[in-house]
């Protein structure tokens, strides 16, 4: 860092600190002069997080359980703060990196023995890890790709015991269809079998025609024996084809647009015959009417779960403590109520650990009372991604400098099986019923390392994502400070199979570049991938890999004896009135982007919560 840059940064930090001091002085003065009495707020349900899961849950619960009220706590701002780039699919890269709507997480550097030569130490360098901190969560800032995974993913969830039958593919398909509103115009009976058309999440086909060079990639794939697939969410996933996206009329459509907006429409009082109590709208009085509605508090940072301290032998959740508008607040749940954590793989795990639920050693070293020892944070799964970028010699051969408004640059994809020996792939891999590689084809620079490289040439990018990794990471508390991010260890390529699968996919990408008409008509040539040994490939993969930002499984749904943190009904072991419903509960990682599976889990969770609520005395 240059001395001038350091001076400017130091001055900026000093200016920020001075303004924060003035803000705190104003908050203190306001609170000191406050005259009205502070009252306890009670809600039937408190949902932590207004991301994909929180939005679906809020809507489903408010309409399906009579006479309840719900509080949703969201750490980020409303999506209107980035309305322009958020709505515009072409600005997805900017939305994903917007400082005001991103948590700012980073993974840790990790050294480990090499796979090709175990006697050599290799480095997985830590990097920025985008996570949506905004109403709508990651559905407000992601690439909008609508992928569910494979039937086998969910049947694996169900195979954990007879009570897990409610998570088999048939049950999950019911939820996928209930959430989805698919706009495809020409549909056959097979497509109708797998898709929904009346849900609140709009899904549509791409709105643009492919560049000629992308059309030629499809030709190359066909010549290699990769079949065309017009529905990656249908009877089979393998093949090459167009993604569908969570968009409506060419614009992003988030879960907040569909579900939270609808939830907020319902505002009633109950019972209508009773008077409304002025000054205490969220009390527990039997003599006054209550609101039946959803309230959302944005820019709210949850500190921890509040426990019933009178019950010494039980961990009974009774509310949530959070920081909002310069103050610490507490909100409580009514009888029969629940706290539902929907913060995502990092936040949900951190909130549980800050509340005394997690690994004993990590809690004790941070001076947190251990209420229930569970392996929270210990099963972190993610999809590593690594790409090959080729230079196109034909001038203006791609549209990377003029990306269409309705395109996120990720329209064409291939799914196929990698080779666990790192060999070049063939037709048996392309027709395998359990593909584990998702390859994106784009005329944009998608590798974060190259995105700011200044390269202006026309390019073709083939981006490989390992969809069924066997390496497992973890996260742990850095501190008991709830504003401090946890340590995130992704552990990519710890298992040899993962490295070889990725290697085989990158070798296929190089082969694709060599095929006519890409090599002849377009003059596609890769930047730096000539003849490389497997050791060269390992070095390249570790240097170029980045996360797909598909973190999950840190609060795993499984029997407690098998490393589970929540049961089949998503209730946290060793607690009452506390559930988790988001990507953190996935027993295994689905083979594809995670937004659709998270919405599915939230819809399924709403039915479980409704059943349990009605069965409570």
From TrEMBL:
Q: Where are the transmembrane segments?
A: none
- Glucose-methanol-choline oxidoreductase C-terminal domain: which residues? 469-602
Which residue range or ranges hold the Glucose-methanol-choline oxidoreductase N-terminal domain? Answer: 43-266, 294-384
Write out the GO MF terms: flavin adenine dinucleotide binding; oxidoreductase activity, acting on CH-OH group of donors
Keyword annotations for this protein, in alphabetical order, are:
FAD, Flavoprotein
Q: Reply yes or no: does the keyword Flavoprotein apply.
A: yes
Record: residues binding FAD? 134, 302
**Does the keyword tRNA-binding feature in the UniProt annotation?**
no
Family affiliation = Belongs to the GMC oxidoreductase family.
Q: Which organism is it from?
A: Rhizophagus irregularis (strain DAOM 197198w) (Glomus intraradices)
**In this record, what's one Pfam family?**
GMC_oxred_N
Q: Which InterPro entries match?
A: FAD/NAD-bd_sf, GMC_OxRdtase, GMC_OxRdtase_N, GMC_OxRtase_C
Q: Which cofactor does it need?
A: FAD
Report the protein name in the record: Alcohol oxidase
């Amino acid at each position: 860092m240059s001395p001038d840059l350091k001076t400017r940064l130091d001055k900026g930090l000093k200016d920020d600190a001075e303004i924060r001091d003035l803000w705190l002085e104003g908050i203190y003065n306001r609170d000191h002069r406050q005259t009205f009495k502070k009252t306890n707020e009670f809600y039937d349900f408190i949902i932590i997080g207004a991301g994909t899961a929180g939005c679906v849950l809020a809507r489903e619960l408010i309409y399906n359980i009579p006479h309840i009220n719900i509080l949703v706590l969201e750490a980020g701002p409303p999506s209107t703060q980035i309305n322009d780039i958020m709505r515009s699919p072409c600005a997805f890269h900017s939305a994903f990196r917007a400082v005001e709507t991103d948590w700012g997480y980073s993974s840790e550097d990790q050294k480990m023995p090499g796979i090709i030569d175990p006697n050599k130490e290799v480095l997985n360098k830590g990097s920025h890890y985008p996570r949506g901190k905004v109403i709508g969560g990651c559905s407000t800032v992601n690439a909008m790709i609508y992928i569910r995974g494979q039937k086998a993913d969910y049947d694996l969830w169900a195979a954990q015991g007879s009570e897990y039958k409610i998570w088999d593919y048939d049950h999950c398909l019911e939820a996928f269809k209930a959430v989805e509103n698919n706009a495809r115009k020409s549909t056959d009976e097979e497509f109708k079998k797998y898709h929904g058309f009346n849900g609140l999440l709009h899904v549509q086909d791409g709105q643009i025609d492919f560049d000629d060079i992308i059309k030629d990639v499809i030709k190359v794939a066909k010549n290699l024996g990769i079949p065309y697939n017009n529905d990656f969410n249908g009877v089979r996933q393998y093949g090459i084809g167009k993604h569908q996206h969570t968009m409506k009329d060419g614009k992003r459509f988030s879960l907040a647009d569909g579900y939270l907006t609808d939830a907020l429409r319902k505002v009633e009082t109950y019972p209508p015959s009773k008077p409304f109590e002025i000054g205490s709208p969220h009390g527990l009085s039997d003599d006054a009417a209550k609101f039946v509605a959803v309230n959302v508090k944005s820019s709210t940072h949850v500190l921890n779960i509040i426990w019933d301290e009178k019950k010494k032998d039980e961990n009974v959740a009774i509310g949530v403590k959070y920081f909002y508008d310069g103050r610490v607040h507490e909100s409580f749940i009514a009888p029969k109520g629940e706290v539902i954590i929907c913060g995502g793989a990092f936040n949900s795990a951190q909130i549980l650990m800050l509340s005394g639920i997690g690994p004993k050693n990590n809690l004790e070293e941070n001076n947190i009372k251990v209420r229930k020892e569970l392996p929270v944070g210990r099963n972190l799964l993610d999809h590593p991604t690594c790409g090959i970028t080729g230079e196109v010699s034909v001038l203006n051969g791609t549209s990377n400098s003029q990306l269409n408004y309705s395109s996120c640059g990720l329209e064409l994809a291939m799914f196929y099986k990698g080779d666990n020996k790192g060999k070049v792939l063939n037709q048996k891999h392309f027709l395998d019923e359990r593909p584990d590689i998702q390859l994106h084809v784009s005329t944009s620079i998608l590798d974060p390392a190259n995105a700011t490289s200044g390269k202006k040439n026309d390019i073709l990018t083939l981006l490989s994502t390992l969809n069924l990794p066997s390496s497992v990471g973890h996260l742990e508390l850095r501190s008991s400070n709830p504003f401090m991010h946890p340590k995130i260890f992704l552990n990519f390529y710890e298992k040899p199979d993962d490295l070889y699968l990725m290697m085989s996919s990158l070798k296929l990408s190089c082969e694709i570049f060599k095929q006519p008409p890409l090599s002849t008509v377009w003059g596609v040539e890769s930047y730096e991938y000539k003849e490389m040994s497997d050791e060269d490939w390992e070095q390249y993969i570790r240097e170029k890999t980045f996360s797909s930002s598909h973190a999950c499984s840190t609060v795993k749904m499984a029997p407690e004896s098998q490393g589970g943190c929540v049961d089949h009904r998503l209730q946290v072991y060793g607690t009452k009135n506390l559930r988790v419903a988001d990507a953190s509960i996935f027993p295994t990682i689905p083979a594809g982007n995670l937004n659709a599976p998270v919405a599915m889990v939230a819809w399924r969770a709403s039915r479980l919560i409704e059943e349990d609520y009605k069965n409570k005395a």
